[in-house]
Write a structure and sequence with these properties.
Oligomer: heterodimer
Shape of chain B: globular
Strand order of the largest sheet of chain B: 1-2
CATH topology of chain A: ABC transporter involved in vitamin B12 uptake, BtuC
Helix content of chain A: 55-70%
Number of strands of chain A: 4
Distance between the termini of chain B: 54 Å
Radius of gyration of chain B: 19 Å
Shape of chain A: globular
Order of helices and strands of chain B: HHHHEEHHHHHHH
Number of domains of chain A: 1
Number of helices of chain B: 11
Largest interface: A-B, 46 and 42 residues
Distance between the termini of chain A: 22 Å
Radius of gyration of chain A: 21 Å
Structural class of chain B: mainly alpha
Number of strands of chain B: 2
Number of helices of chain A: 14
Strand content of chain B: under 5%
Structural class of chain A: mainly alpha
Largest sheet of chain B: 2 strands, antiparallel
Chain lengths: 348, 295
C-alpha cells in the first residue's frame, strides 16, 4: 500500500479500501462520467479503438493477476483468450443468451487454465514460462484442427450480441457494454488483490518456500490464480469474438500472448492501474503508427507496405526501452508524477 | 518401413540444425542464466547477412561466410552491451521480455531490409543426392550434420581445456566466486553472446542452403525449447543430443499422424507435447544440473 500524507487509519479495513480518500472517489467518478460522455463526440474509428482498449484492459488485468501478483509467468494467455472466444461463440451459436454465453466462455476457459496450471506446482520461473509456451502452441493447433467446434481455418461467424431484446449492433452500443465489463473486471481484480487470496498470491510471488512455511497451500492458490486469471481471459475472448463478429484461430497466436505480457510489463507488474496503462499504451501505439504512416505515404510511398514490420519493430523497441529505463512500468511513473504535483511549488 | 527410415534420416538432418541453435542457446544460458527467446532471430539475421553478401554484393561464398561470422561477433557484442547488461540481476520475466522485444526488433529490421519473400541461396554444394543405406540424401544435409558435429566437438574441447572456457564454466557455477578469483564477468557475458551469435549464424547459413530463407525462420527459435529442456538447459551434450532426438521424434510423430489419423501439420506441436511430458517427469532433462533452493 502506498501511504499518503495526511491519511490516518485506525483499522485494517480502512487501510485496505480501494479508494482511500474522498478526493480519489471524486476523481474516479469524474473520470467515469467523462468516459460515459466521450463516445457521443467521437467518430466511429476512435470509438472502435476505445472498444479494443476495453477488451485489452480485461485481458491485461487478468494476466497481471497471474503474472504480476502471483509471479507465474504465462506465455499462453493469448490461447486462453481464444478458448474463451470459441466457447462463448459456440454457446451463442447454439442459442444461449449473451450474458450466459460470456459466463460459460469464462468458465470453460477457467477449467482449461486450471488444467494447464497444474504443472505450475512443480515448475517455476522459466520452466513454467516454457510449459505455458507449449500450452499456447498446442491450443493454437487445436484451434486450427478443431473441426466444427472451432470452424477450422474458416473460423466462426457471430451475430452482434443481444441482451433483453436490445441489440448491441453499433460501435457506440458496444462501447457501453465493453465499458461495463472492463469496469467490473477492474473492480473484481482490485477486490481480489486486497483479500486473503491476493495476499497469498503476493506471498507466493515473493518467495514460494516462505509462503508455504507460513501456511499458504501452494497448489490450491496457484490453481486458483490460474483459474481466476483464465476466467477473465475467457470473458475478454468472448467479448472480443462477439465484438468483431468473427473468430479464427490465427488471432490467438503467440504474438497475442506476448503483447499481453508486454502490456503487463510496460504498465507495471502487480498493479491494477498499471494494467490499464499498459493496455491503453499498446493498443494505441500501432494505431498511431498507422496514422503516421498514412500521413507519410505521400512522401515515402513504400511505407504503407512496411507498416506491419514497423509496428512490430517499434513494439520490440518500446519493450526494450521500458525494461532498461523504466523497469517498474508506467504505474511507477504515474506515482512519481502524482507525488510531484502534490508538493508542486515546494518539492522538498 | 522405408517410410519411417526416411523420416528418421530427415529428422536427424533437421535435428542437427536444432542442435546448432540449441548449442547457442545453452552457451548463453550456461554463462549468463539468460533464457534467450531471440535465438531464432539471431539465426535469421546470420542467414540474411550471408545472403546479402553473396547475392547482392557478389562476394564469393567462403568470404561472405567469414564476413558473416565477423558481423555476428559485432551483433553479439551490441546485444550484450546495449540490451542485456542493464538487466543483470533483474527478475526472470524482465529478462525474458527483453529478449522477446529483441526478437521483434531483429525480425522487423530483416523485414524492412529484405521484405518477406523467400530468398534462394546460390548453390554451393552439388545437388546430386548421395545414397546412404539405400536412401537418397542431399549433400547439404550431410554437410549440416558434419558441421554440427564439428562445432559441438570444438566447443566441448573449448569449455573443457581452454582458459576462457574454464572461466566461463566458473562464471556459470558461481558468479561471485568467479569474480573474486579475478575473472571479468562482463567479458565472459559478452563472449558468450558472441559465440552464440556465431553458432546461430552458421545454423542460418546451413538452413539457407537447404530451404532458402524467409522471415519466418525465426520460428525455429521456439523449437529450441523442447531440445534444450530434453537435454538439460545447461548441458552442451544435452543440447546436441536433444536437438537430434527432437528432430527425429517430431518427424516420426508427424509421419505417424499422417499415416494413421490423416492429420497434417502435427509436426508443429509434436515437439511441444514431448516438451510437456519431459517437464512433468524429468524437469532438469537428461544432463541438466538440478537446482536446489534453500530458505
Amino acid at each position: 500500500m502506498q501511504g499518503k500524507c495526511g491519511l490516518f487509519f485506525t483499522s485494517y479495513r480502512g487501510e485496505a479500501q480501494i479508494f482511500q480518500s474522498g478526493f480519489q472517489k471524486l476523481m474516479v467518478g469524474l473520470f467515469a462520467a467523462v468516459l460515459i460522455a466521450v463516445p457521443l463526440g467521437l467518430d466511429n474509428y476512435l470509438v472502435s479503438v476505445m472498444n479494443l482498449i476495453f477488451i485489452a484492459v480485461i485481458g491485461a488485468v487478468s494476466l497481471n493477476l497471474l503474472t504480476g501478483a502471483c509471479g507465474q509467468i504465462s506465455l499462453g494467455h493469448g490461447a486462453f483468450i481464444g478458448v474463451g472466444a470459441f466457447a462463448a461463440g459456440q454457446c451463442s451459436l447454439h442459442g444461449v443468451p449473451f450474458p450466459l454465453a460470456i459466463l460459460s466462455g469464462g468458465l470453460v476457459t477457467a477449467l482449461v487454465g486450471m488444467v494447464f496450471g497444474v504443472p505450475s506446482l512443480r515448475l517455476k520461473g522459466i520452466y513454467l514460462a516454457i510449459a505455458t509456451l507449449a500450452a499456447q502452441l498446442v491450443l493454437e493447433f487445436v484451434f486450427l484442427h478443431g473441426g466444427e467446434v472451432t470452424g477450422g481455418s474458416n473460423g466462426l461467424l457471430l451475430d452482434p450480441p443481444q441482451m433483453f431484446g436490445f441489440s448491441f449492433d453499433s460501435e457506440i452500443r458496444m462501447y457501453y457494454l465493453l465499458f461495463a465489463f472492463a469496469a467490473l473486471s477492474l473492480l473484481m481484480v482490485s477486490n481480489i488483490m486486497r483479500s486473503k487470496y491476493g495476499r497469498a498470491f503476493v506471498s507466493i510471488r515473493d518467495f514460494y518456500l516462505s509462503a508455504e512455511i507460513n501456511g499458504v497451500n501452494l497448489f490450491w492458490y496457484k490453481i486458483i490464480a490460474f483459474g481466476v486469471s483464465s476466467f477473465l481471459a475467457g470473458v475478454a475472448g468472448g467479448l472480443w469474438g462477439h465484438y468483431t463478429g468473427y473468430i479464427s484461430g490465427e488471432q490467438f497466436n503467440i504474438g497475442l500472448s506476448i503483447t499481453y505480457l508486454a502490456m503487463v510489463v510496460i504498465g507495471g507488474l502487480g498493479s491494477v492501474l498499471g494494467s490499464v496503462f499498459g493496455a491503453v499504451f499498446l493498443t494505441v501505439l500501432p494505431e498511431v503508427l498507422n496514422v503516421l504512416a498514412n500521413g507519410l505515404s505521400d512522401y515515402i510511398p513504400a511505407i504503407t507496405q512496411r507498416v506491419g514490420a514497423i509496428q512490430h519493430g517499434v513494439f520490440g523497441l518500446v519493450l526494450i526501452l521500458f525494461l532498461v529505463y523504466e523497469p517498474e512500468g508506467l504505474a511507477h511513473r504515474w506515482r512519481l508524477i502524482k507525488a510531484y504535483w502534490k508538493l508542486y511549488p515546494f518539492a522538498h | 518401413m522405408e517410410y519411417y527410415l526416411q523420416l528418421i534420416v530427415n529428422g536427424l538432418v533437421v535435428g542437427s540444425i536444432y542442435s546448432l541453435v540449441a548449442l547457442g542457446f545453452v552457451i548463453i544460458y550456461k554463462a549468463t542464466k539468460v533464457v534467450n527467446f531471440a535465438q531464432g532471430e539471431m539465426v535469421m539475421v546470420g542467414a540474411y547477412i550471408c545472403f546479402a553478401l553473396t547475392v547482392q554484393f557478389n562476394i564469393p561464398f567462403i568470404w561472405a561466410f567469414l564476413i558473416t561470422l565477423g558481423f555476428s561477433v559485432l551483433l553479439g557484442l551490441a546485444i550484450e552491451r546495449m540490451v542485456l547488461r542493464p538487466l543483470i540481476g533483474e527478475e526472470h520475466i524482465s529478462v525474458i521480455m527483453v529478449t522477446v522485444g529483441m526478437s521483434s526488433v531483429l525480425k522487423s529490421l530483416v523485414q524492412l531490409c529484405w521484405g518477406t519473400q523467400i530468398k534462394v541461396y546460390p548453390q554451393v554444394l552439388p545437388t546430386e543426392p548421395v545414397m546412404i543405406a539405400g536412401l537418397p540424401v542431399a549433400p547439404v544435409y550431410i554437410a549440416a550434420f558434419i558441421l554440427s558435429v564439428i562445432l559441438f566437438a570444438v566447443f566441448s574441447v573449448f569449455f573443457k581445456y581452454s582458459r576462457t572456457g574454464v572461466a566461463m564454466r566458473a562464471t556459470a557455477f558461481d558468479q561471485q566466486a568467479a569474480q573474486s578469483m579475478g575473472i571479468g564477468i562482463k567479458n565472459i557475458f559478452a563472449m558468450s553472446w558472441c559465440i552464440a551469435c556465431i553458432v546461430s549464424a552458421v545454423g542460418g547459413v546451413i538452413l539457407g542452403n537447404i530451404n532458402g530463407i524467409n522471415s519466418h525462420i525465426g520460428h525455429l527459435g521456439l523449437k529450441v525449447f523442447p531440445a534444450v529442456i530434453l537435454g538439460g538447459l545447461d548441458s552442451l551434450l544435452g543440447a546436441a543430443l536433444g536437438g537430434l532426438i527432437i528432430g527425429v521424434l517430431e518427424n516420426v510423430c508427424d509421419g505417424a499422424a499422417r499415416q494413421f489419423f490423416n492429420l497434417g501439420g502435427f509436426r508443429e506441436v509434436a515437439a511441444f507435447i514431448i516438451l510437456v511430458v519431459i517437464l512433468m517427469i524429468k524437469p532438469y532433462g537428461l544432463f541438466g544440473t538440478k537446482e536446489i533452493e534453500r530458505v
